[in-house]
Design goal:
The complex is a heterodimer of chains A (120) and B (135). Chain A is mainly alpha-helical and 120 residues long. Chain B is mainly α and 135 residues long. In chain B, helix 1 packs parallel to helix 5. Classes of the chains: A mainly alpha (120), B mainly alpha (135).
Amino acid sequence: MKWAMIAIIVASTAAGEVAAARGMRQHGEIRDFRPGALGRAAALLTRNRFVIGSVAAMAVSFFAYMRLLTIADLSFAVPATAVTYALETVLAKYVLKEHVNWLRWAGAAMVICGVALVSL
Amino acid sequence: MSAEAARLRAKTWICATVVVLSNVFGNFFLKRGMPAELPSPLAYITALFRPAAALGVVLLVTWMLLRMALLSWADLSYVLPVTSIGYVLVALVGKLLLNEEISVHRWAGIVLIMGGVALVGGGSAVQTGHGGPQR
């Protein structure tokens, strides 16, 4: 059950974050953090299909995470779900077409190894 | 560094710090608020109304919204490793506040994560990918 929850969390989080990155990129940089401006930005974003898809995927991830927290330690649950890093870095390169330079690959690789160790 | 680059860098670090802290304490309060068992779908909903879990949810919603704001100007491949410092803080919170064990493996992992964050954090956050604003 623990690993099934982790698989659901990883898949839905990766899909949700890539969709969020795509949707927010379409929207452009948020410069004004005053409540009114944030409300207007939120209203615009509710019409962005990538953002809507992202929120749905993150909701699935959240309820699977709640289930995981009832059966696992916090210091296991959080790092174990960080397998998303590997998946999301690859998706950032090939789906979002980001320029992932060697520093980012090396940093992501160190984080993934660190997360694997923390999960042991 | 140009004024625009300096502005984006400062904004990125402030936003990333709040993203990390809201995630760490959101996870902590959610864990504190979770009952020992969730026997039915209704139990998931009622669990969210326990005070600690509700505070955790508010912090995690804040985390998600701020992370989306951060992604409006920064690359996902930058945001991912930089915000991973949260894993270190979660492990420390687990040890200090929830009395969870941290083995030698976990400490070694924490050091690696911090190294990865330092490596990527020194670079630029500015978006490099396709699919920019369409307005």
